[in-house]
Amino acid sequence: MPPRSQRRGSRWVLTVLCLAVMVAQVDTSIVMLATQAIGAHFRASVPALQWVVDSYNLSYAALLLTGGLLADLRGRRRLFMAGLALFTKASLLCALAPSVGVLVLGRALAGAGAGAACMIPASLALVRVVWPDTAARNRVLGIWAACNGLSLAIGPSLGALLLQHFGWRSVFLAVVPLGALALGGAWAWVPESADPQERAFDGGAQLLAAAALAALAVAAIHARAQPVLATVSLALSALALAGFVLVERARGPHALVPLDTFRIPAFRGAMVATVAMTFGMYGVLFLLPLDWQASGQLSAWQAGLALMPMALVFVLVSPFSGGLTRRAGARTLACGGLAVIAAGLLLAGWTAGAAPAWWATLLGLGLTGLGMGLATAPLMGLAVGAVPPGWAGTAAALINVARMIGATVGVAVLGTLYAHAGAGAPGLRLAMTVAAAVQLASAALAWRALGRARR
Predict the structure, then answer these.
(1) Among the residues of 295-423, which ranges form H helices?
(2) Which of 205, 180, 166 is nearest to 88 (CA)?
(3) Contact partners, residue 263, CB within 8 Å, separation at least 6
(4) Can you tell me the distance from the alpha carbon of 361 to that of 205, in angstroms, rounded to the nearest whole number?
(5) From residue 321, how far is each of 153, 324, 393 by CA, in Å?
(6) H or E element at residue 174
(7) How far is CA 140 from the centre of its chain?
(8) pLDDT of 125
(9) Is the pLDDT of residue 390 over 90?
(10) Closest CA to 179 of 86, 52, 96, 70
(11) Do 333 and 324 touch, CB atoms closer than 8 A?
(12) In the chain, helix, strand, coil percent, each to 5?
């Protein structure tokens, strides 16, 4: 057992890392709730509101790879603090935005490589380094995941309160003091660590990865309204991805993303499951509040309260996921969690808006939160534990790329399906049925990959 002083220091480190996660996630959940007010203020269309959400997700995902690599090369604490600083400044820009275009720019900066894209991979890499023991790391990741759920609970309620009394600009100001507090804690308590292993920054691969993700988002968002643009964007995304693979293959172990990482079955299964999980989670967080408020069924405050069951169940279940992983195994917990999410999405999507069935909608959201609470920590643990400690930043970046690809494509694709079906109840039913099908298909693929890892 580590000395008492070391355990006390580790608790402070965990506190700072959890606070940073909450800063990023509270911001995301607040913005989801504020889209209706932002759209009314700027008279913005649904695609424009999708870009308010996806500009953050897109830059976050596109630059996570660089953030993870730089954390390994230059220092995880240094990148963690740089991310917090830029994230806080970008939130101020969003609060002062004079147009929806400037707001989209501010959101993109908040998710950029020096912003949130450094915070999250660096924090997960620090978990891998500070807690090398698997059992201790699983317990810590359960707490880390619970903070995701806590932020989902805080975000809607805090956002609704701010929207009702101070307007949509206040929701961006709310994360500024949290960011400053986390920055001070990182300076005081988080240890520095780095492990270059003869790797170097790979600008060409980074540009190709960013281009592939950007084009994919454009294709998804404009698939219905501008099919020609969507087709061209999808082709460009495929070409950029092919170029990225060729560049990385040539660089071998010194690549931005060493391709051998994807030959590890446990890592590959965790990636597939994580994409599916956030595809459904962010889709429901975007569509349900938007539909409730647009149809006049609920105010912003009521919509925030209606999302609470999902967040509260997530918070209550996540801290126990470490112990459940030891008993049932990460494979069972992760894939079973996806199946529970699928059931929750179907129930919430098919009952939302029907007054006598509100209890069923809330139950569906609770099941979604249960599935996320079961699956999140095991998936993070599988990803960062499957690689050597020197690759911790890169592995953490990749699993968060998977999270944000799922979120970006989920908001874009499910939002498009919702609009295509005419919005309202038909749109929700179509979107949530597709989201549930993605959960189940990905659970099957992940089960197979993780089974190979066990063998």
Answers:
(1) 300-306, 308-317, 321-328, 330-351, 358-385, 392-420
(2) 180
(3) none
(4) 44
(5) 19, 5, 23
(6) none
(7) 18
(8) 75
(9) no
(10) 86
(11) yes
(12) 85, 0, 15
Cα 111 from Cα 121, distance rounded (Å): 12
Determine the Cα–Cα distance for residues 310 and 281; give it in Å rounded to an integer.
10
CA distances from 198 to 71, 289, 391 (A): 14, 48, 12
pLDDT in tens, 91-108: 889 988 888 889 999 998
* Measured distance CA(390)–CA(88) in Å, rounded: 29
Residues 6+ apart with CB under 8 A from 189: 9, 12, 13, 15, 16
Give the integer Cα–Cα distance in Å for 274 and 396: 12
Residues 6+ away with beta carbon under 8 Å from 35: 49, 52, 53, 286, 289, 290
> In this structure, are residues 104 and 50 in contact, taking their beta carbons and an 8 Å threshold?
no
CA pair distance 327, 330, nearest whole angstrom: 9
Type of residue at 38: I
Residue at 446: amino acid letter: A
> What tokens does 256 get?
């931005």
Amino acid symbol at 169: R
| Structure tokens that stand for 332 in this block | 């069972």
Report angle CA 12, 122, 401 to the nearest 5 degrees.
135
82 φ/ψ angles, rounded to the nearest 5 degrees: -60, -40
Residues in the chain, overall count: 455
**For the segment 267-326, what is each residue's pLDDT rounded down to a tens digit?**
888 889 999 999 998 888 888 888 888 877 877 677 777 877 888 888 888 888 877 887
| Pairwise CA distance, residues 320 & 41, whole Å | 42
Report CA-CA distances (Å) from 438 to 257, 277, 432, 443: 26, 9, 10, 8
CA 357/CA 79 separation, integer angstroms: 47
CA atoms within 13 A on the CB side of 148: 25
> CA–CA separation, 328 vs 34, rounded Å?
39
Confidence check: pLDDT of 343 > 90: yes
